TrEMBL record:
Coiled-coil regions listed: none
Family recorded in the similarity comment: Belongs to the SdhE FAD assembly factor family.
GO biological process, one term: tricarboxylic acid cycle
One Pfam family this sequence matches: Sdh5
The protein, known as: FAD assembly factor SdhE
InterPro entries the UniProt entry points to: SDH (IPR005631), SDH_sf (IPR036714)
Alphabetically ordered keywords of this record: Chaperone
Length: 103
């Protein structure tokens, strides 16, 4: 039986192509909050992401919008399979914005 599960480390795409795809998808999520968080993060840091980070980002893009927003904003517990370096960086990415809003 063939496994039809999508491969996040596609052998047909190099890391540069994956980065371009991530940047586009990060700005076109579905809810504006995620577009702003993921899009600005991708614009700022995608060039610095490792191959493993790119895989984690691609997997995160497959998760439901409301869950992703909850995990990043720390309003929902992050499942173990999403507790990654990338998630920590995303959570840190929104801290400065929160600080500005709380003033």
């Amino acid at each position: 039986m063939t496994d039809n599960t999508p491969s996040y480390e596609s052998s047909t795409l190099d890391d540069d192509a994956r980065r371009r795809r991530i940047k586009f998808r990060a700005w076109h999520r579905g809810i504006k909050e995620n577009d702003l968080i993921l899009g600005t993060f991708a614009d700022a840091y995608v060039e610095d992401l490792t191959t493993d980070d790119l895989t984690d980002f691609e997997q995160l893009m497959e998760a439901p919008d409301q869950d992703v927003y909850g995990w990043i904003s720390n309003t929902k517990p992050v499942p173990d399979n999403y507790k990654t370096n990338l998630m920590t960086r995303l959570q840190s990415h929104i801290v400065p914005a929160r600080t500005r809003l709380e003033r």
